[in-house]
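Retro notes (design track)

What went well: tokenization of the new backbones is finally stable.
What didn't: we kept losing track of which sequence belonged to which structure.
Fix going forward: every design gets posted as structure first, then sequence, in one message. First example under the new rule, 352 residues:
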């Protein structure tokens, strides 16, 4: 007798007559039955109704199920063993049983369980369509708010800025002061200035590039001790004064300003008691680093020809003269004709 190798089927012993048609047919059929594995030509395919999986199904080597359209889970009690398993617990949330033996919740309701992603990016961005992404073409990270993907705000502690494209460890930090009492926003200018200018901040935090207008008054404040009285030369008629002489005499009223500042106006206050004559005032500059210095008038000539007006003021606005180095600036005054005419103070306004 012959025993077939796969299913152990025993072929019958042939009769004395030797091989016959039924002997050959029976042997061939039994050989087919022994070799059948339900692949094509070796038996009917096994359908799902004929399969009853009652234990874990192991795949040999690195083999894996392929072309799966979906996996449908049944809710089970959370595992206390069987690490590296994906399952749905009785709370109908998806879990991963880690190799360390912990049940890691992946979903919460209809969203990802981002609140449990320790050290990750949490929040409700998944529900509203916000995104944090890396843009390789621009070498930058982008933070977008909900649809249609507008730029989002960032809230953080100190921001440290490193040079792009380097591995430098030094940085420029942007930090809020420790004693900050209330929040405010700094708004940058629309464009940089055409030349180097100081930056100013408004009360609403708006930055602008431009000069600050300052007024300098001359002569400086003078203090008189003894009676506890402070006298300011530019405002008090009792203060020390410049006594103007005759109409042909010239008095120069000098002043000093920072180099680079721009003179925009000047003014002069005095007292005229003469009944006739004209008080004349002009603004001049005079270079001090030339062999033959010569004064240059700035703006127009200002005059007062009123008879005995008492207190008066002369001046001019709308100027734009940049203060140069090694240059003197002064107001030149010609008297009205009598010695009683006086100048009590003068002031210059400039942008710095």
């Amino acid at each position: 007798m012959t025993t077939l190798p796969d299913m152990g089927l025993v072929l019958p012993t042939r009769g004395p007559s030797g091989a016959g048609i039924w002997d050959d047919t029976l042997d061939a059929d039994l050989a087919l039955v022994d070799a059948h594995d339900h692949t094509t030509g070796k038996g009917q395919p096994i359908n799902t109704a004929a399969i009853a999986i009652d234990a874990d199904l192991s795949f040999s080597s690195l083999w894996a199920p392929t072309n799966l359209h979906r996996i449908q889970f049944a809710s089970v009690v959370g595992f206390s063993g069987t690490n590296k398993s994906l399952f749905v617990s009785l709370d109908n949330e998806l879990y991963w049983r880690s190799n360390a033996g912990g049940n890691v919740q992946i979903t919460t309701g209809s969203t990802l369980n981002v609140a449990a992603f320790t050290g990750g990016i949490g929040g409700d961005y998944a529900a509203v369509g916000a995104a944090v992404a890396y843009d390789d073409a621009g070498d930058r990270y982008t933070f977008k708010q909900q649809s249609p993907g507008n730029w989002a705000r960032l809230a953080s502690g100190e921001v440290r800025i490193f040079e792009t494209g380097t591995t430098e460890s030094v940085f420029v930090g942007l930090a809020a002061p420790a004693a900050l009492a209330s929040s405010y926003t700094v708004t940058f200018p629309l464009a940089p200035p055409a030349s180097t200018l100081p930056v100013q901040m408004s009360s609403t935090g708006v930055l602008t590039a431009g000069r600050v207008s300052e007024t300098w008054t001359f002569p400086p404040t003078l203090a008189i001790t003894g009676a506890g009285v402070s006298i300011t030369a530019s405002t008090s008629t009792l203060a020390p004064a410049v006594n103007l002489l005759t109409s042909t005499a010239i008095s120069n009223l000098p002043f000093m300003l920072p180099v680079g500042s721009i003179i925009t106006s000047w003014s002069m206050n005095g007292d005229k008691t003469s009944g006739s004559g004209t008080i004349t005032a002009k603004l001049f500059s005079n270079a001090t680093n030339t062999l033959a210095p010569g004064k240059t008038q700035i703006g127009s000539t200002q005059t007062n020809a009123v008879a005995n007006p008492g207190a008066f003021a002369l001046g001019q606005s709308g100027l734009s003269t940049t203060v140069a180095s090694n240059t003197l600036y002064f107001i030149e005054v010609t008297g009205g004709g009598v010695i009683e005419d006086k100048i009590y103070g003068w002031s210059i306004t400039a942008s710095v």
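Added context from the reviewer: Residues 2-35 form one domain.
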